[in-house]
Amino acid sequence: NLAELIHRQKYVETAFGRKLYVARNKAHAGANYLIQGTAAGMLKRGEIRIDEYCRYNLDGLANIVVTIHDECIISISRLLFPDINYILSDMSRMLEYHPEIKVPMEAEWSLTTSAWNKKEGFKYKKPDDWKFCEYHV
């Protein structure tokens, strides 16, 4: 039981080993700490991978603009659109793959060419000849 564990050790530990201390009188919040803390760790690791991928593999034609809660806003040059399926396949893998997480994850993508509040869901097609860019996973 998570509440008993919190009463005993006063913290929860994310899948990445980060300890999040929880007040004993708020042990009921421990599950939220655990879920939110693990999700934050996943996003941070994905951001680092994507940032390096953009700098070293995409010649700076794509970059992370900002992170808002659980969304990562990425600017991708129109020059890269012919390869968008490869790029998003790589980026999805960077966001989804964490050996510490046993549950399959799936990144969702949205697209806009104007403003963030005008974004629409976007499905890319994983290319048949796609081989994940091995850089930093």
Largest sheet: 2 strands, antiparallel
**Mean pLDDT across every amino acid position:** 90
How many helical stretches? 3
Indicate the multimeric state: single chain
First CA to last CA: what distance?
A: 33 Å
State which percent range the strand residues make up: 15-25%
Pick out its properties:
single chain; 137 residues; alpha+beta; two-stranded antiparallel sheet; two-stranded antiparallel ribbon; elongated
Brief digest:
The protein has 137 residues and is an alpha+beta fold.
Describe the fold and architecture:
The protein is an alpha+beta fold. The chain contains 3 helices and 6 strands. The strands form 3 sheets. The protein has a two-stranded antiparallel sheet. A two-stranded antiparallel ribbon has the order 3-4. Strands 5-6 form a two-stranded antiparallel sheet. A hairpin with an 8-residue loop joins β5 and β6. α2 runs antiparallel to α3. It is elongated and about 55 Å long. The chain starts with a helix and ends in a 15-residue tail after the last strand. The mean pLDDT is 90.
Question: Which helices and strands, and how do they pair?
Answer:
Layout (H helix, E strand, L loop, with lengths): L1 H8 L1 E3 L5 E3 L8 H28 L4 E7 L2 E6 L7 H13 L12 E3 L8 E3 L15
Antiparallel strand pairs: 1-2, 3-4, 5-6
Helix pairs in contact: 2-3
